[in-house]
TrEMBL record:
Cellular compartment(s): Nucleus
Family: Belongs to the HARBI1 family.
Protein name: Nuclease HARBI1
Required cofactor(s): a divalent metal cation
Main localization (coarse): nucleus
Gene: LOC104591244
GO cellular component labels: nucleus
GO MF annotations, alphabetized: hydrolase activity; metal ion binding; nuclease activity
Alphabetical keyword list: Hydrolase, Metal-binding, Nuclease, Nucleus
């Protein structure tokens, strides 16, 4: 499918629903109109839309046809995933046959997948500014590069395949794992695992597959209690309750509570990045009527576009909405999302077990204790000075 989305993300409801323009004129009107129109219709600013079109053309992944330019091809794709539109509604909007809509949708999706790896950059060794500039986190989490969590994305599969995809809540889903930075970029995404797969199993797959999640030497990601505390991944203390935020008069009572509290505040970046992703591309929270392989690709493609937008326009309106910390939920039960941009092997359920020696696990436990102890000592000292 070729992708030709208009680049005005905020088309008014009247234009969106009632315009009598054909697809070519509709896209032209959006892209020559106010930037808000592009945001509403194509879920990104105009300059970002055009840059994405130019990239596809330069890479030879999409080309103009006699009837549909690249811009309109991308517009069709973004309109579908940005508004969760079914083919019939898109046919009416763009005035093309269902076959034409479907072909361009798939062409654009495949074009994104062809270069998705370029949009996912591994973490660097520098201390993240979000940690360096905050006394709550520095120097304690100076070696932390981001957070890992998952989300369950609704999935449609045949009756005979539904068993493994039914998650613990009884819904059909794919379990997607994502590693992200504190500036709301995805480092790594693995999509396609069945909803019944445990979080630790999905993480194990991410660590052991050919195109694996890599953690820089001496660095680590934050994870929640669904995952084990192990080298490269620091989890909160199990069974330790803590104030959900730093409200005056409500304080952590010991080192473990304080560690869990600040660990949670940092880790809520996963809540925010998933919120941006779902807000921009609501198709991810529905059950798209596509083959399973396409449903898996859509997750990866959405995360890739998310990163592209973040790189090209850091002050994108959705990022601005979620850049600041949001209060973490009392019960953190974020569903899981699995996306792997490097290689689409969503049904590879056979993977070796990632095994750590007892000494390595002990070292990971000691690292967490050392962080908690230092943090608590400094906290007590600061209270005595006040």
């Amino acid at each position: 499918m070729d992708s030709s989305d208009d680049e005005n993300n905020d088309v008014t409801k009247e234009l969106y629903h009632n315009s009598t323009l054909n697809g070519t004129k509709f896209v032209e009107e959006v892209l020559t109109g106010q930037n808000e129109y592009c945001r509403e219709n194509f879920r990104m600013d105009k300059q970002v839309f055009y840059k994405l079109c130019d990239l596809f053309q330069a890479k030879g992944l999409l080309r103009h046809t006699s009837r549909i330019k690249i811009e309109e091809q991308l517009a069709i794709f973004l309109f579908i995933i940005g508004h969760n539109q079914r083919t019939r509604a898109v046919q009416e909007r763009f005035r093309y046959s269902g076959e034409t809509i479907s072909r361009h949708f798939n062409n654009v999706l495949n074009a994104i997948m062809a270069i998705a790896i370029d949009f996912f950059q591994p973490p660097v060794s520098d201390i993240p500014p979000e940690i360096l500039g905050d006394a709550r986190f520095y120097p304690y989490f100076k070696d932390c590069v981001g957070a890992v969590d998952g989300i369950h994305i609704p999935v449609m599969v045949g009756v005979d395949e539904q068993g493994p995809f039914r998650n613990k809540n009884g819904f059909l889903s794919q379990n997607v794992l994502a590693a992200c930075s504190f500036d709301l970029k995805f480092h790594y995404v693995l999509a396609g695992w069945e909803g019944s797969a445990t979080d630790s199993r999905v993480l194990n797959s991410a660590l052991t597959r050919r195109n694996n999640l890599k953690v820089p030497e001496g660095k680590y990601y934050l994870v929640d209690s669904k995952y084990p505390n192990m080298p490269g991944f620091i989890a909160p203390y199990n069974g330790v309750r803590y104030p959900t935020n730093e409200i005056p008069g409500i304080y952590a009572q010991d080192a473990r509570e304080l560690f869990n509290q600040r660990h949670s505040i940092l880790r809520n970046v996963t809540d925010r990045i998933f919120a941006v992703l779902k807000e921009r591309f609501p198709i991810l929270m529905s059950v798209p009527p596509y083959p399973l392989q396409t449903q898996v690709k859509l997750v990866v493609a959405a995360c890739a576009i998310h990163n592209f937008i973040r790189n090209e326009k850091r002050d994108d309106w959705l990022f601005k909405m979620y850049e600041q910390d949001i209060e973490p939920p009392v019960e953190e039960s974020m569903p899981q999302v699995e996306v792997e941009p490097v290689a689409m092997i969503p049904f590879e359920t056979q993977s070796s077990e990632f095994v750590f020696a007892e000494g390595q696990l002990e070292a990971a436990s000691q690292l967490r204790d050392a962080i908690a102890t230092e943090m608590w000592s400094d906290h007590v000292r600061s209270l005595s000075i006040m």
